[in-house]
Write a structure and sequence with these properties.
Layout (H helix, E strand, L loop, with lengths): L2 E7 L5 H10 L4 E4 L13 H10 L3 E4 L1 H4 L7 H4 L3 H13 L5 E5 L9 H8 L3 E8 L2 E4 L4
Parallel strand pairs: 1-4, 1-5, 2-3, 2-4
Antiparallel strand pairs: 5-6
Length: 142
């Protein structure tokens, strides 16, 4: 059985909802892949989010420098780079010791660069996208 890695979008969720989802799936580490870890919602800004997660015994790591979106010419091309592969290896390594969830701001994974990250991980892991607290989707290999 493959180890599971989760993904989740912050979107317009409340902090309470976001934390409840992480607790439900027993997440121990949040890997933030937002290139710019900010939000119109104060509680999703990097430093405040990190503090809130710590209060709930969840670790936080920002990986937006190597896995963040908004790449030129596009993210699909970026997936062919050494930096992207380095980021994927980092996720793989972290998943050995912690149950982790990759986050960014887009609620729907298929509209987001999390989809590319998930596909890169799906040979070795079961990747589950959390859409809502009780609604998930699994990565399908093409």
């Amino acid at each position: 059985m493959k180890k599971i890695i989760y993904t989740l979008g912050t979107s317009n969720r409340t902090l309470t909802e976001f934390l409840r989802i992480l607790k439900k799936y027993k997440i121990e580490l949040v890997c933030d892949v937002r290139r710019f870890p900010t939000s119109k919602f104060e509680y999703f800004k990097k430093d405040l989010l990190k503090k809130s997660l710590k209060e709930h015994n969840i670790d936080y790591l920002w990986l937006g420098d190597i896995l963040g979106g908004f790449r030129k010419p596009n993210y699909q091309e970026y997936t062919k780079t050494k930096d992207f592969k380095k980021g994927i290896e980092k996720i793989k390594s972290l998943s050995k010791s912690k149950k982790l969830c990759i986050i960014c701001s887009e609620r729907l994974y298929f509209k987001c660069h999390r989809n590319f990250i998930a596909k890169a991980l799906s040979n070795e892991f079961e990747v589950i996208h959390i859409i809502e607290e009780d609604k998930i989707a699994s990565v399908k290999r093409s």
